[in-house]
Amino acid sequence: MRLKSIYFPFLFLLILNIHAQSVPLRFQGSVSDDRSNLSGVTLQVSKSGKVMNNIITDAGGRYSFELPLGGEYLITVSKEGYISKKFTVSTLGVPAEMASLRFPSVEASLTLFKRMEGIDYSLLNQPVNKFYFDVEREDFVYDENHLKQMKKGIEQIKEQEKALLAKEKEREEQYTAAIKAGDKAFAKMDWQAALAFYEQSLQVKSQEPYPKAQIEKVNASILEEKKNKENADLAAKQAAEAAAAKAMADKLAKEKAEADALAKKQAQEKAASDALAKKQADELAAKKAAEVAAAAALASKAAKEKADAEAAKALADKQAKEKAEADALAKKQAQEKAASDALAKKQEDELAAKKAAEVAAAAALASKAAKEKADADAAKEKEKADALAKKQAEEAAAKKAADEAAAKAIADKQAQEKAAAEAMAKKQSDEASAKKAAELAAAVALADKLAKEKTAADALAKKQADEAAAKQAKEDAEAKAKSDKELADKQEKEKAAKAKADADALAKKQADEAAAKKAKADKAILPVLGVTDTRYSAAIKKGDEAFSKRRYYDAKTAYEEALVAKGGDVYAKTRLMECEKQINADANQKVDERQKELLAKYPPGITEEIIPGENVVVIRRVVVKDKKAFVYEKKVFNWGGIACFRDGESITELTFEQETKKQ
Q: Which residues contact 523 (CB under 8 A, 6 or more apart)?
């Protein structure tokens, strides 16, 4: 009996303590941006720097949570791409007699700003509102003066955003116009204009990938066009030089043909001139010979006539002599006959002698007369013939001299002309030969030059081909290495995922076993404490369904509810840890993607960028070290304030300078 009397007071005291617990303060509301309510917003509840709870807004942007009395809490409202806001809640100062009462739910709705580069959001590093218990009003209220001041600052932020949006709209219009003009020029293959417009668009939006890609295409097109033009120019140059060489060869051949034709013509003219001179000389010689022959014939005729006269005279003399001898003989015979004939015939003989003497006298007279006449005629004819012969000889000699002088002058002139023509022909031949040799040398030099240029072009083309092949081989090797690395990474990830799945399965099995054991133990004590398993089971079921659908935030909330219903439950704790891992894994994946972008953009070391904004200048330093990238920002405001951040988290200026100092 004494044991019962001790037990019941203990049980009463336990039940009394349960019913005398303070009722938590409920907060509820919605989170939105300037357009609509936001789902997936995290409300992190922390106390003294320790995270107590994480609440996620539902599809309608609504949330609710409860805060125990007797504490000071910081609620941070955040979402990716938005500026976080904070508000504080102090549940201190609630009188003991009111702690068990349920206060009206506090409606706290917030609007988040979308993060905009160049806007100073440092005001929001401090709480936008402060809730506390007002003893006089006996209720929870907010600090109106603080909220009023914060609203003024928030209005300034809105004005900055409005001005930035207007500026951004103008920049967007400039960017769009530049891109449109660049695309139009690109379509027309006006590379320089396209390049200028794309570079102009980058001046407006320096991080846009499209104009950068277009600039690479333009540069590639310019390079290809330049290469094609160089090849075309080289081909045209070679064709022109070949045509020039052919034209030069044709010109040389033509000039040689013309020189040969001229030499042939001059030779023909010389031959014709020589033939004409020879003909004239032959005609002159023939004429002179004819004249000499005529003179000789005339002299011969005169000589003949003279000889004939002398012959006639000789004949007459001979005849007269013969006649005289005949007469003397006849006379002697007659005398002898007369002497012999007798004197009888003296008269006949005397008559015959008289007749013979008369005949002889007549013959002598006739002979004398004939001789005198012949002599006179011969002398006349001789004198006439001599005069004629002399005249003809003089005329012939004068004519001969004149003809010889003329022929000599003609011959000299022809010789001079011939010599001049030969000298001119030789000079032209020498000049043509020299010119031909020079042009041939030039053609050979040009051919050598073309050969050298072709060799150089071939060498350049080979070099470019080798470089392109080397580059392609390098790219293929890099691509293969990258592919091998990606394959290895994939296999490693698959291996890690399998190991994790196995570990998770093992942990789940162990958790299920522990949960089963604890459920069995709880089953015995819960009825004694007056707690039912309904709320716990519903929360666990809800959490498992959300976890299977990969809604880890909802699953986390459900498992937290299960822990409220059944404090220290191993299964709920294990599943809660798994939710945290999955949430962190998603966050880490986003961080990894951000890291990849930063590592691809910035080289190892420290890269500083100065970004001027309205009323603020941002000094951004990107530190790349050990294959990790960190973004540091120092905001210097025109009113003298300075705010420093590392990957979005607030740090001191000293930390900023120390961690971004160049070694």
A: 533
Residue 102, C-beta contacts closer than 8 angstroms, at least 6 positions apart? 23, 26
181, 207 Cβ separation under 8 angstroms: no
How do residues 542-570 score in pLDDT, each as one tens digit?
A: 999 999 988 888 898 898 888 887 877 88
Two structure tokens written together for 315 = 């004949």
Please state, in angstroms and rounded to a whole number, the distance separating the CA atoms of residues 275 and 566. 146
Q: What is the pLDDT of residues 489-501, one digit of tens each?
A: 778 778 777 777 7
Rounded CA-CA distance 239/245 in Å is 9
What's the token pair of residue 278?
A: 């020879």
CB burial class (10 A; 0-12, 13-18, 19+) of residue 132?
middle
Give the span between the Cα atoms of 38 and 161, in whole angstroms.
20
CA torsion 89→92→95→99, rounded to 10°? 60
- Pair type for strands 616-625 and 605-613: antiparallel
280 burial class (0-12, 13-18, 19+ CB within 10 angstroms)? middle
Q: Residue 556 corresponds to which tokens in the numbers above?
A: 């986390």
Q: How far is CA 426 from CA 166, 264, 420, 432, 434, in A?
A: 92, 13, 9, 9, 12
| Distance, CA of 284 to CA of 547 (rounded, Å) | 141
Pairwise CA distance, residues 23 & 564, whole Å:
14
Sign of CA dihedral 271, 276, 277, 282: positive
Tokens of 469: 């092949």
Residue 136, φ and ψ in degrees, nearest 5: -65, -45
Question: Which residue reads 């592919």 in tokens?
Answer: 483
Phi-psi region of 330 (alpha: psi -120 to 50; beta: other; left: phi over 0): alpha
pLDDT value of residue 531: 44
Angle made by CA atoms 67, 69, 70, in degrees to the nearest 5: 125
Residue type, 603: P
d(C-alpha 198, C-alpha 318), whole Å: 146
DSSP conformation letters of 444-469: HHHHHHHHHHHHHHHHHHHHHHHHHH
CA distance 484 to 486: 5
pTM: 0.33
The residue behind tokens 């304030």 is 641
